[in-house]
Amino acid sequence: MRKSILLISGVGIGAGLLYAFTRASKQAEGKSQNGNGKAEAENESSGNRSNVRSFDSGASMRSVNGEEKKRVDPVIDDLGTNQHDAAEILMTIRDAAFDSNDEKLAVALGRPVEEIEAWTTGDATIDGDAVIKARHLAEMRGVEIQ
Questions:
Q1: What 8-state DSSP symbol labels residue 20?
Q2: Phi, psi dihedrals of residue 68, rounded to the nearest 5°
Q3: Is the Cβ–Cβ distance between 76 and 83 less than 8 Å?
Q4: Which are the contacts of 62, defined by CB distance < 8 A and separation ≥ 6?
Q5: Residues 39, 42, 44: CA angle, nearest 5 degrees
Q6: pLDDT tens, residue order, the chain (146 aa)
């Protein structure tokens, strides 16, 4: 009985390690995992991205050396929130519920004050966890966002 449990445990650990190593090698080769768990190239010029969910709400045009290039802000959550929207949410909550005080917002979100300041000035990328917590804080404190 013990031998079979050890054998099954070893097979499970081996399978997990194999998965982790193959996933890491695919990401190192410039491939990512889409929502269906299938690997795909990150090259957007291929045009065949029919199975990938895309939110282009944060897209904008920028001129670089006379050429128009499309810049897409990363989508933070399943509601399609981009960095600009997330910063507005954080600043709205900070101003309405925390007396415009970054320190009070930092304590409520469980983050350092420096990170809150970097988010609101646009110097750092806001993560999905912070947006989820901020939306919940707004709901709890009766602050209307967007």
A1: H
A2: -85, 125
A3: yes
A4: 68, 69, 71
A5: 130
A6: 888 888 888 888 988 888 887 887 777 766 544 444 444 444 444 444 433 333 444 444 444 555 554 456 778 888 889 999 999 999 999 999 999 999 999 999 999 999 999 999 989 999 999 999 999 999 999 999 87
